[in-house]
């Protein structure tokens, strides 16, 4: 077996057929913006046995589940943008009790590095510790790799953060689930999935659930 | 998150389009029987980055790799038939030096339970310990589940062993990769993949590599 390279991986990133992953007007009530019904993008994942948000037994273990269960495999840290952590902008002191969207048991179970221009002390919720870092993508990735202790690092989004790491050419693999809905506006991952083919191989895998999985890996 | 059920999983099980997984005349030179060129069944897996037998860097990280990398995820023990462990029949004393097909570093890294009518002391090679058990499938599965300490158990084959566990209705999920070759004879997994639909859901996923992945999970 070869030595394991320490990859930066994007998983279960959900976009509309026209390439949008979120609206522009995120709020507490509308984490993905008011124009987006998240269920249109997320329902394929919620139906699987391995979706971290599942609260009942059951769920499918077919193709879609292959992707939801791959999310945690061999991951030692996550990187996310501030807008994945909170709907609030500005100084953290304005919302001192906010601990993320995930309640008392965040699904990460690893260190999480939150990119923000407003540093603050680290925050531990159950077995997840959030670190708040004001730095460029390469620096944040170096920190996350060190914390991951040889395991891979997951890039958790949102759209703006994924775009930043793609622009810096730091992403090794991406799994994007394209839903058969048109949103028309919002924050865009791409004009077309073909945009990435200069740097990535790709498999396109239609699922019985109606989404199309795009799997990219570095050339 | 729900409590994790302890599944019995079959992964990367490779059969021909006409349902054969091995020939009848296994030998040291022909682990899958003389009529089968293993490369016809295995090449899709060998091309992936996560195939345990890969000895060089590189390899694809697309759809086929989703399956090869799922092989070790959350597995705490493996069960295999004697014929997966050795080409030799009869008493173990006739081949005292045989330690399996995998050299000094077997890819399992967990306890492995070898089903055989010829018990013998356990054998440790690197971080894999092989236990040799003369018992029915349900008893072997109970032993493997205990050893897996809450993780899943993988059923590693060969064909005869997978059939025994299917007949005893002990298998929770199966991934079978069907290659576009006809073998005409040998040890048969099924007459048709539809044979299992009375008890399992199924997704059928064609891969760019030419194999078709069949994913089964319990109804």
UniProtKB/TrEMBL annotation, chains A, B:
The record's section on InterPro entries has: DHFR-like_dom_sf, RibDG_C, Riboflavin_Biosynth_HTPR
Which PANTHER family does the annotation name? BIFUNCTIONAL DEAMINASE-REDUCTASE DOMAIN PROTEIN, DIHYDROFOLATE REDUCTASE FAMILY PROTEIN (AFU_ORTHOLOGUE AFUA_8G06820)
The segment(s) forming the Bacterial bifunctional deaminase-reductase C-terminal domain are 111-191
Q: What is this protein called?
A: Dihydrofolate reductase family protein
| Source organism | Streptomyces racemochromogenes
């Amino acid at each position: 077996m070869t030595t394991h390279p320490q990859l930066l991986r994007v998983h279960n990133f959900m976009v509309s057929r026209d390439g949008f992953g979120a609206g522009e007007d995120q709020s507490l009530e509308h984490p993905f913006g008011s124009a987006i019904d998240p269920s249109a993008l997320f329902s394929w994942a919620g139906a699987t046995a391995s979706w971290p948000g599942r609260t009942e037994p059951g769920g499918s273990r077919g193709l879609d589940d292959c992707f939801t269960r791959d999310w945690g495999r061999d991951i030692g840290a996550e990187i996310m943008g501030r807008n994945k952590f909170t709907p609030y902008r500005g100084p953290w002191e304005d919302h001192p009790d906010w601990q993320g969207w995930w309640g008392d048991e965040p699904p990460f179970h690893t260190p999480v590095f939150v990119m923000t221009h407003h540093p603050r002390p680290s925050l531990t919720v159950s077995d997840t510790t959030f670190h708040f870092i004001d730095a460029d993508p390469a620096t944040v990735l170096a920190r996350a790799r060190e914390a991951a202790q040889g395991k891979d690092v997951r890039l958790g989004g949102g759209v703006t953060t994924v775009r930043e790491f793609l622009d810096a050419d730091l992403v090794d693999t991406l799994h994007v689930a394209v839903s058969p809905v048109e949103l028309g506006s919002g924050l865009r991952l791409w004009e077309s999935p073909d945009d990435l083919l200069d740097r990535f191989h790709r498999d396109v895998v239609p699922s019985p659930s109606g989404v199309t999985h795009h799997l990219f890996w570095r050339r």
